[in-house]
Predict the structure.
Amino acid sequence: MNDTVSRRHLIRAAITATAVGASGAHATEGAGQAAKGSRSAAEPARMERGYARGPFGQIHFRDSGVGKPVVLIHQAPMSSRQFDNVYPYFIALGYRPIGIDCPGFGMSDPTDFVPTVGDWARVVPAVLDHLGIHQADVVGHHTGALVATEVEQRFRPRVRKLVLGSALPLTPEERQKFLAGVEKNEINFVHQTDGSHLQAAFMTRYRMYGNVPLPEPRLITRYTVERFMGLAPFWHGHFAAFTYDHGATIPLIRRPTLILTNTGDQIYEQSKIAARMRPDFAFFELQGGGIDIVDQQPREWVNAIDQFLKS
């Protein structure tokens, strides 16, 4: 009986607090809107979430609000949470990190068709327009590097410098192999009635992380959830990536560019090929790691980008 009374008391208190909070929110709404973007210099920057109107619906983004703008574009099939561990490092160095969920991933609206890398590139200027930013540095990791390349190709005045978190020039044989894997493991993916597909997806991602450092189960859980949480089929990401001809667009890049890779990356060899294609590009390789180098060596990853952007 006492437990029941206690629970009722907690529920009643929560309802009262919610009502008070709601009335307070209405009273201060105007002041809050007026203060948006005018954070005190003494107040530490933090990532806040928002939506911009884009070519395919709403675009979800994360933004620190102050500093030198740097757009971060995630790999597939993930979201702007891929950069959770590096946002603080960028902020500490005076940057304004802006993470964008590609259409159909994270909390962004999907396209109503199978998209290309070029389609995803169109959301970047929409977010910059929404934030009142004319030009930014653009950083992409894996699939995000392809999207970043297309942003530079299509919207060059909006890009100051470009960072490719690995590059993907492919031979026809390599492209066919990657696409065959997408068809087998993603397009033909089966959601099992007992939920075992979730455990299988977790273990696949666990193995892909590598052993140095050992995978952190909570992190791999987040990766697995991100794969399935988007509003589009998750195979859209790798399908777009492996049908994109990075080898054809790399020679067309005109903005100062850094290829940032790591020796344990799945596409490390392709990144070295890209560097030979463009000896004028800056090139930096971190040691070890895997496809999740952003989480495995966050400080080193940001420091490499910082040195290039400030050069």
Observations:
- Residues 60-174+230-309 form a domain with the Rossmann fold fold (CATH 3.40.50.1820).
- The longest strand covers residues 48-54.
- Confidence is low (pLDDT under 50) at residues 1-42.
